C-alpha cells in the first residue's frame, strides 16, 4: 500500500511555551497512533517544519485541519506525494525544538526566512527545507 506524505513550513502565530508544546504533542501523538500517521515536527526560530505520512485519506484530512489551524501563519507546502514505505515508522510524532547554535551545526542549514528561502533555485528533487529535515534525522540517528 502506498502512503501519502506532506511536508510544510509555517510561522508560529504565537510562540508556544514548552508546556503548550508538550500538551499539543500529547494530543497529536494519541490521534496519530489511531490514524496510523507518523512523522516529525521541528520548531526552529519560531517556525514549524513538519513531515507527516500515513493513509492517503487521513493525511488529507489532517493537512486540511493544519491549514486552518490559527497557530500557523504563512503556511507553505514544501512537498507532497506517495512513498512505498514510511520514513518515520517508529515516530507517532517525533519532536525537537532546536536552538540557534544547534541549527547552525545542522548540515544544509539555511536562514529560514520564507521569502528568502524561495529565492534560491531548487537544485535536484528536494526543497532546501526538506534537506534540513533529512539532515536533522540523520544527525539523530548517529
TrEMBL record:
GO terms for molecular function: blue light photoreceptor activity; FAD binding. Residues 3-94 form the BLUF domain. InterPro entries: Acylphosphatase-like_dom_sf, BLUF_domain. SMART domains: BLUF (SM01034). It holds the Pfam family BLUF. This is BLUF domain-containing protein. It comes from Psychroflexus maritimus.
